[in-house]
Design brief:
By secondary structure, the chain is an alpha+beta fold. The chain has two domains: 134 residues, Immunoglobulin-like (Sandwich), CATH 2.60.40; 107 residues, Immunoglobulin-like. Helix content is 16%, strand content 39%. It contains three helices and 17 strands. Strands 1, 2, 5, 6, 11, 12, 14, 16 and 17 form a nine-stranded mixed sheet that branches. A four-stranded antiparallel sheet has the order 4-3-7-8, with no helix packed on it. It is globular.
Length: 302
């Protein structure tokens, strides 16, 4: 299973990289909208989503005032990587404020970056990734319900091993193959464990989980108007996420609601993004993953 998971994770690597760049475009901290934009002292911003079994990619920029149309990356920073408090390497700049490591992220180790930008104080950030929790079984439910458009949606019911005796945090992602692997659209959240979190996203803790295993049901659809059901091959990815990643994903959901108050889903409130970067802004957090076997809804059950 581990060899298969490693191969499939490589398939998702490019998607994750572009998702990482998209996250960077959302995370830059700004002031509230005003008629006049006062002078704003640029502040270092460091972002990195750590993914187990992948090298580290760090983006360095300067947060600007609200009327700035684009944020430019800082290419002349010094980015030092420490693993378990031991200096490991200087990350290599590759342009547009991106810096890459040669080291591969391993669960259970603590990663720290110290960033030096001329004219600013030292910026630091650190996180450690939990070991992945294994998926014990998966079941595909062809028709789990009907959405508001009158179209059926499916579900994946999965059981995974829980780590008892410590706080753990998870994120579940369903990947569908539509010519390429991409995340499926989540439908109504009905699972009590996820409902207890208070947000309609598949991010949850083990606070309400009793025992060394747990079963979760996740409703999903293709996101299209096709009414023939979900027949595309899919994979369940269970991410064991750090506490800072858990906080960041939750705040990112609320932040996006506040960005679009004119829509029905908009809250009209302003939410800040979670940051664990000292002397600056940004997020430095991540996850390790376990992947299920490929689930083929067209394949008859044995």
């Amino acid at each position: 299973m581990r060899n298969q998971n490693s191969q499939i994770i490589l398939i998702f690597h490019n998607f994750r990289f572009f998702s990482f760049l998209l996250i960077l475009s959302l995370i830059s901290c700004r002031d509230l909208v005003q008629d006049d934009f006062p002078d704003f002292m640029p502040i270092p911003t460091v972002n990195s989503i750590l993914i187990a079994d992948s090298t580290i990619q760090v983006h360095v920029s300067l947060a600007e005032k609200m009327d700035t149309t684009s944020l430019k990356g800082v290419d002349n920073a010094e980015v030092k990587l420490f693993i378990n408090n031991t200096f490991t390497e200087n990350l290599v700049p590759v342009g547009d404020g991106c810096y890459h490591s040669t080291s591969t992220v391993e669960p259970g180790k603590t990663y720290q970056c110290k960033v030096h930008i001329a004219g600013f104080g030292e910026v630091t950030c650190s996180d450690s990734l939990p070991t992945p929790n294994s998926i014990l079984s998966t079941e595909h439910v062809a028709t789990a319900g009907i959405n508001q458009d009158g179209l059926p949606y499916s579900a994946i019911k999965f059981t995974f091993r829980n780590t008892t005796g410590e706080h753990r945090y998870y994120q579940a992602v369903i990947w569908q193959h539509t010519g390429r692997w991409q995340p499926a659209t989540l439908e109504e959240i009905t699972d009590p464990i996820i409902l207890s979190e208070g947000l309609p996203i598949a991010v949850f803790s083990n606070d309400q989980i009793k025992g060394d295993s747990c079963t979760i049901t996740l409703n999903y659809s293709t996101g299209s108007s096709y009414s023939g059901g979900n027949t595309l091959p899919c994979i369940l990815e269970l991410r064991s996420i750090s506490f800072d990643y858990y906080q960041y994903i939750r705040q990112l959901y609320l932040y996006n609601l506040g960005r679009f108050p004119e829509f029905l889903t908009g809250s009209g409130n302003v939410f800040s993004l979670h940051s664990n970067v000292r002397n600056g802004y940004g997020i430095f957090a991540g996850y390790s993953s376990c992947l299920s076997e490929i689930i083929n809804p067209n394949q008859p059950s044995l």
